[in-house]
């Protein structure tokens, strides 16, 4: 991603899906890494949303903004219901 593309992706005055289109190819390349998987797991655990994708980026942003603006935590049921799935299995 070029410096100009990164600046556009970070510009919150721009449309969310327009910004997502800039980073989506990089996300698809990184989503199966530990960092990418942790974001998918966090989306599920914190907001009860099935990962990070074009389909979920809008609802994720809305949930994040709602929690940030009211300084509340995500719904307690969402956090508890996914906790067991975050545990490592052997």
Helix/strand structural class: mainly alpha
Which outline best applies?
globular
What is the N-to-C order of secondary-structure elements (H for helix, E for strand)? HHHHH
Low-confidence stretches: 80-90
Tally of individual domains: 1
Largest sheet geometry:
none
Helix content: 55-70%
Distance between the termini: 37 Å
Beta strand %:
under 5%
Task: Give the number of helices.
Answer: 5
* Overall average residue pLDDT: 82
What is the count of β-strands? 0
Radius of gyration: 14 Å
Describe the 3D structure.
By secondary structure, the protein is mainly α. It contains 5 helices and no strands. Helix 1 (3-10) crosses helix 2 (16-30).
In short:
The protein is mainly α. The chain has five helices and no strands.
Attribute tags:
mainly alpha; disordered C terminus; 5 helices; 90 residues
Set down the secondary structure blueprint.
Layout: H1 3-10, H2 16-30, H3 34-47, H4 57-70, H5 76-86
Helix pairs in contact: 1-2, 3-5
């Amino acid at each position: 991603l070029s410096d100009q593309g990164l600046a556009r992706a970070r510009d919150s005055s721009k449309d969310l899906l327009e910004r997502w289109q800039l980073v989506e190819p990089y996300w698809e390349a990184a989503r199966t890494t530990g960092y990418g998987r942790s974001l998918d797991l966090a989306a599920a655990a914190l907001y009860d949303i099935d990962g990070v994708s074009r389909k979920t980026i809008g609802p994720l942003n809305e949930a994040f903004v709602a929690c940030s603006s009211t300084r509340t935590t995500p719904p307690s049921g969402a956090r508890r219901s996914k906790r067991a799935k975050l545990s490592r299995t052997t």
